[in-house]
């Protein structure tokens, strides 16, 4: 019997706004800035890139480009994406 491996995609398991919020919070608390941008990409895919882009006021193409592995989004863009995902940035 042969075994096959499948790729795990956390986006498939972020089903609610609370899931997304907890995922982003953990990444912000324990990851790097690059990890957080990658987490935003994952959360946006979970919620729907087109919907997040619309709510953030950016084009879908711009959203993909900003959140790509080699992307370098401006803080303003990050803040808009976080808000579109139903979250807010807090410093404590």
Name the features:
92 residues, mainly alpha
Describe the protein's topology:
Elements (H helix, E strand, L loop, with lengths): L16 H14 L2 H15 L1 H8 L3 H8 L7 H10 L8
Question: Could you describe the 3D structure shown?
Answer:
The protein has one domain (17-84). It is 60% helix and 0% strand. It contains five helices and no strands.
Strand fraction equals under 5%
Shape: globular
Mean pLDDT: 95
- Largest sheet report: none
Short description:
The chain is mostly helical. 60% of the residues lie in helices and 0% in strands. It has helices spanning 17-30, 33-47, 49-56, 60-67, 75-84.
């Amino acid at each position: 019997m042969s075994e096959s491996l499948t790729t795990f995609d956390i986006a498939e398991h972020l089903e609610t706004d609370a899931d997304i919020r907890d995922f982003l919070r953990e990444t912000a608390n324990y990851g790097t800035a690059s990890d957080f941008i990658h987490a935003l990409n994952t959360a946006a895919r979970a919620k729907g890139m087109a919907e997040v882009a619309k709510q953030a006021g950016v084009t879908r193409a711009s959203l993909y480009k900003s959140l790509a592995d080699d992307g370098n989004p401006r803080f303003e863009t990050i803040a808009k994406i976080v808000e579109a995902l139903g979250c807010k940035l807090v410093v404590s």
